[in-house]
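Input (Clp ATPase C-terminal domain-containing protein):
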Amino acid sequence: MDTKNILFICGGAFVGLEKCISDRQHDSSIGFGAPVRASMRTGKLTEDLVTSSMLENVESGDLITYGLIPEFVGRCPILVSLSALDEDQLVQVLTKPKNALGKQYKKMLRMNDVELHFTENALRMIARKAMKKNTGARGLRSILENILTEAMFEVPESNSIKAVLVDEEAVGSVDASGCGAKILCDVDELTQCSKSEIMRNLKVNDMVAGNEGRLSNGVEFPSVAIRL
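Output:
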């Protein structure tokens, strides 16, 4: 079979490969003088960024040390590593694509004439929680599910709910869960939320386009609550 025009791409997570690279480079990760641990201890680098940085130096010998047979590694002449997603990129995953997670949940709630609103701080906290779990973009859905579960059950059962708000208080912190999405039955409730300290200094997210500032019934809401 002629394979001259066939491109084979082999990919994987290769968990622990950075240890093989570190051993080859003789980089110690033990002691107060260790560069990796020292940087992480001062908060300059996260574990994901350290791993991504080390994987940039991967060589064929590292894959063999990792456990792949030389005959297989020899058929992969080009090695490329991918960097971990940062906070801004995870926020883009939540909002930018045509089928972004935020837009999916917004559409589901809109089927019941309920609008879903996110604050910018909430989106960034969701991204930080995903980074903390080291699950990348895959972890965003589980985080959103935990935040919106109660609202998803309550909305179909009630005709009085006007909006669902996800702010920083609803998301919580990196290490702790929040109170969950806030179910609003009155436009005034959204106005009151906008006056809280959490949302006071938020700006409308530039990536959001459409009928910002209005609920489905045409009533205006504060611009500090952003929509996907």
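The longest strand covers residues 115-118.
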